[in-house]
Write a structure and sequence with these properties.
The chain is α/β, with parallel strands linked by helices and 353 residues long. Helix content is 30%, strand content 24%. The chain has a single domain, classed as L-arginine/glycine Amidinotransferase, Chain A, CATH 3.75.10. The radius of gyration is 19 Å and the shape is globular.
């Protein structure tokens, strides 16, 4: 995908429809992630006040380049970065990675990037305002990313009345959402809104009809326990979930994970458990070792491997079974785990209309 093609696409979108309020176009929905993509959006991490240690920032940047070049084997990638980075980045990126001059502080495209919906032929952005996970992190640039990408693509921006992050919602593309209350029904994002009010706005934003809530964990990580590191739909009615082999029920994250699993089983979902690694390269207690933080792109599933040969292999086999016909590619993305996220958090799809 080159700039001329993107410009043609933007012109077509502008001609197709004017900006629409969210509730005036109920046919718009977020397709499932394994729906064909036009491209993948990613963001370039730069903020010294976020990373502090220059060596770790370079390690994280190297990880983003590795992910972008891997996805680019299967589909086009758009990497958002301020223009003064472009010369240095261009020599490290493959030809299917396009650089856009959109400044960024951090890498979390799932959260700061646009949530793109389609009614089958037009596309638009359901705009969920990003405020740095409840004003916990600098977001002067990142808060503007979704609107700037929508403008660049020529997609209408449809306000949702919500503040939050798409990493806090898992959806099957067929009308069902899954979320932790802690990431949404929270004074640091949506003060004054009840769970029912937040839920109604999420259903409109995604074009969905039902939501399964679980409490989650408040205030113990920057995301207030995003669902996409715990549970993922592989198709309607089927869920993969990441659980510890030997749970510690004194750990609030372990308790919350089992509460979410129980809620999904009560709702009639077929749930398959993938165990976390027992042995991994990074031993820190804060490290997020989630096999669920994978990304589904055209023809492939891009997933993490953590250094435990047994569980890495089991997780890859499970993903291959749930996504037949797709190549499962595993990467060392330990830098993202140290930051509390993974490959899914670092990507956001541009679905084909």
């Amino acid at each position: 995908m080159n700039r001329r093609d993107m410009a043609k696409g933007a012109a077509a979108m502008l001609a197709a429809g004017a900006a629409l309020p969210l509730d005036s176009a109920p046919a718009f929905r977020v397709p499932p992630e394994d729906h064909p993509h036009e491209a993948t959006l990613m963001m370039w991490p730069t903020a010294a006040q976020v990373y502090g240690d220059a060596a770790f920032l370079r390690q994280t940047q190297n990880t983003i380049i590795r992910i972008a070049n891997t996805i680019a084997v299967f589909e086009d990638v758009i990497l958002l970065a301020a223009s003064d980075w472009h010369v240095r980045l261009r020599v490290r990126l493959t030809g299917r990675v396009t650089l856009w001059d959109i400044p960024t502080e951090d890498l979390w495209a799932r959260d700061a990037g646009p949530l793109i919906t389609t009614d089958g032929w037009r596309r638009a952005v359901s705009h969920i305002a990003f405020n740095g996970w409840g004003r916990r992190q600098v977001h002067r640039h990142d808060a503007k990313v979704a609107a700037l990408v929508a403008e660049r693509l020529g997609f209408a921006l449809r306000p949702t009345g919500l503040t939050g992050e798409a990493g806090g919602v898992e959806q099957d593309g067929a009308g069902l959402l899954l979320a932790h209350e802690s990431s949404w029904v929270n004074a640091n994002r949506n003060p004054g809104l009840t769970r029912d009010q937040v839920g109604a706005r999420l259903l409109q934003a995604y074009g969905a009809s039902r939501i399964i809530w679980s409490r989650g964990v408040y205030g113990m990580d920057i995301t207030d326990y995003h669902i996409d590191s715990l549970a993922r739909f592989t198709r309607p009615g089927h869920l993969l979930i990441n659980q510890p082999r030997q749970p510690d029920m004194a750990d609030p994250f372990h308790r919350a994970a089992f509460e979410t699993e129980a809620a999904c089983r009560r709702a009639g979902l077929a749930v398959e458990v993938i165990f976390e690694p027992d042995r991994r390269r990074v031993a820190s207690e804060d490290f997020v070792a989630s096999y669920m933080n994978y990304y589904t792109c055209n023809g492939a599933v891009i997933a993490a491997a953590f250094g435990d040969a047994d569980t890495d292999k089991a997780a890859a086999k499970a993903l291959a079974r749930h996504f037949p016909g797709r190549q499962v590619v595993t990467l060392n993305v330990d830098a993202l785990g140290e930051l509390g996220g993974g490959i899914h958090c670092a990507t956001q799809q541009v679905p084909l209309a």
